Amino acid sequence: MASRLNPYLSFDGDARQAMEFYKEVFGGTLSLNTFGEASGQTDAPEAGKIMHGMLESASGFTLMGADTPPGMEYTPGNTFSVSVSGDDDAELRGYWGKLSADGTVSVPLEKQMWGDVFGMCTDRFGVTWMVDIGEPQT
């Protein structure tokens, strides 16, 4: 899979409704994963909230979004990040190194519960970036 660059939107509990709306606007395939599915804790208050959503349109658009995770503050006006994802470990680690240099790392680039290597940082210009390295497709 080639690396991909796309917006990643943050929501305050209404990610499902927003992502379904964007599907109506752009068409395509929508996948939604909840915090409960990821953690196995289906009785937690955030269990039904969206941990990760991805819309891929026939026109080649990719839009990702999620509800703000528990413990993180939702800040209106700062509700997007730029996501860089793919399976080329060296390429994506190179991007991470440059983006996080002189910036602030909020999630270190490391293996996550869903299996990918993921990190989140804010670059020196105040732009929030997410880097996700998946397993190479065979």
TrEMBL record:
Protein name: VOC family protein
Organism expressing this protein natively: Streptomyces boluensis
Family annotation (Gene3D superfamilies): 2,3-Dihydroxybiphenyl 1,2-Dioxygenase, domain 1 (3.10.180.10)
Coiled-coil regions listed: none
InterPro entries, alphabetized: Glyas_Bleomycin-R_OHBP_Dase (IPR029068), Glyas_Fos-R_dOase_dom (IPR004360), PhnB-like (IPR028973)
Record-linked PANTHER family: PROTEIN YJDN (PTHR33990:SF1), PROTEIN YJDN-RELATED (PTHR33990)
Residue intervals of the Glyoxalase/fosfomycin resistance/dioxygenase domain: 4-131
